[in-house]
Amino acid sequence: MSEIEPSANIGVVGLAVMGSNLARNLASREGNTVAVYNRTTAKTDALLEAHPEAGFVHTATVQEFADSLQKPRTAIIMVKAGRPTDAVIDELCEVFEAGDVIVDGGNSLFTDTIRREKAVRETGINFVGCGISGGEEGALKGPSLMPGGSVEGYKTLGPILSTIAAVAEGEPCVTHVGTDGAGHFVKMVHNGIEYADMQLIGEAYDLIRQGTGASPAQIADIFGKWNDGELNSYLIEITAEVLRQTDAETGKALVDVIVDQAGAKGTGAWTVQTALDLGIPVSGIAEAVFARSLSSKPKQRAVTGDLPGPSASAVDDAEAFIEDVRLALFASKIVAYSQGFDLIVQGAEEYDWDIKKGDIAAIWRGGCIIRAQFLNRITDAYADEPDLVALLSAPYFREALTAAQDGWRRVVVAAAQSGIPAPAFSSSLAYYDGLRAERLPAALVQGQRDFFGAHTYKRTDKEGTFHTLWSGDRSEVTAEDTH
Ligand SMILES: NC(=O)c1ccc[n+]([C@@H]2O[C@H](COP(=O)([O-])OP(=O)(O)OC[C@H]3O[C@@H](n4cnc5c(N)ncnc54)[C@H](OP(=O)(O)O)[C@@H]3O)[C@@H](O)[C@H]2O)c1
């Protein structure tokens, strides 16, 4: 045993950008004393030197870290997701005891969190997978927090998290999302929606730029105006700032000197993979993930750049077109959020989580990257109808889509005619029309499946399962349901 006094009420492991900012956020709140630990001690030394005001408790070993924490101990891990997180959990489990709380604040895959929670629970230690959104600034000033794990673990943790979370309309942006991996699941969907939101904004910019010839600075002004209306959001706000930025070296708009290949850290792909497994169409998110992949294929783009396209823009009235793009952006954004919430609903059913959809929208209103005014509308929609089957059928969204749909269609047509790629706009519109359709060509697909694989079909006019004897006399027989 070391001689260290247990003076800290919370600890942070992993002091890279997120961990150090979260530790500073914690330390700045009344009543908190924060113990800090990092595998490489030099990082811990540097943090204490840079921020003496935080009053951090410096620890150089995991044993010292455990000894410096008051019981029940609470530690937040902010290290690289994957194996590093497993390694740190194992280390902490060696020195922590039953009743303590280990929080993983990294971007862990929710299935890893489910596995870890089960394993850690067997030791009597509580394990909480907590989604944290807001990037480095959010971590420092107030992130949106999505903790999962046991109700017992949340009892100790909840009050601490409430003090460091962002505040939106007087409420802290944190709620106990559900058990085990629920928090990381919801954070994953949040990131998927973020991908869609960013892609849609990118398409809006590109359509206006190529369609009307407006400059980045002029488009910055357009986004600035949009931010005063129903599109008001962090992403719209920062888009205006990025577009207004001039490159000091060349004097060009910064956006014109940035290589047009978008990177990704994988949470968008996780969202789509999970959606495929659960059978939920998240086409807006998927298009956003694929659009980043397409952009990052320089070799393919080099040999396809001279494929034929239309010779001129199909946009004639620039002002009307810009308003149509605004409407298309809002409508497609509604689709992306609706799809994201469908995935949350299905995930909750599959993994037995009691997730309050309205509360999720509420905690995304502040701190996180997708914070937006219209999240209030989602909260309202679920408050009015907790079992709402499709978000876009709620009265506010129905009205918004009614107002937007003509412009949305015109934009998708103009994009196709002008040869401007707008995959998320057009797939969102197709999704909307798919949901609206009285009859879908799925009937024909069922016929084809029955033809080549005897997969059977249902009829619209009577109960039962049927098969046509395609290779025989083509009469219909009743059959076992094989889907
Ligand atoms: N950056 C963001 O905007 C953001 C937003 C939300 C969530 N997150 C998540 O937050 C977590 C931290 O992100 P970050 O960008 O601050 O840092 P990071 O670059 O993902 O991770 C660096 C940290 O992980 C530690 N680490 C790596 N391998 C380790 C191992 N085997 N054992 C112990 N420690 C190990 C490093 O320690 P050493 O100093 O010893 O190398 C360092 O403290 C990640 O899970 C990330 O996905 C990030």
TrEMBL record:
The keyword Oxidoreductase applies. Keywords: Gluconate utilization, NADP, Oxidoreductase, Pentose shunt. The active site is at K187 (proton acceptor), E194 (proton donor). It is an enzyme of class 1 (oxidoreductase). Homodimer. One of its GO terms (biological process) is D-gluconate metabolic process. Belongs to the 6-phosphogluconate dehydrogenase family. Transmembrane segments: none annotated. NCBIfam families: gnd, PRK09287.1. Substrate binds at N107, S133, G134, G135, H190, N191, Y195, K265, R292, R449, H455. This is 6-phosphogluconate dehydrogenase, decarboxylating. It catalyses: 6-phospho-D-gluconate + NADP(+) = D-ribulose 5-phosphate + CO2 + NADPH. Pathway: Carbohydrate degradation; pentose phosphate pathway; D-ribulose 5-phosphate from D-glucose 6-phosphate (oxidative stage): step 3/3. Its EC number is 1.1.1.44. It comes from Antricoccus suffuscus. Residues 183-471 form the 6-phosphogluconate dehydrogenase C-terminal domain. SMART domains: 6PGD. Catalyzes the oxidative decarboxylation of 6-phosphogluconate to ribulose 5-phosphate and CO(2), with concomitant reduction of NADP to NADPH. GO terms for molecular function: NADP binding; phosphogluconate dehydrogenase (decarboxylating) activity. NADP(+) binds at G14, L15, A16, V17, M18, G19, N38, R39, T40, V79, K80, A81, N107.
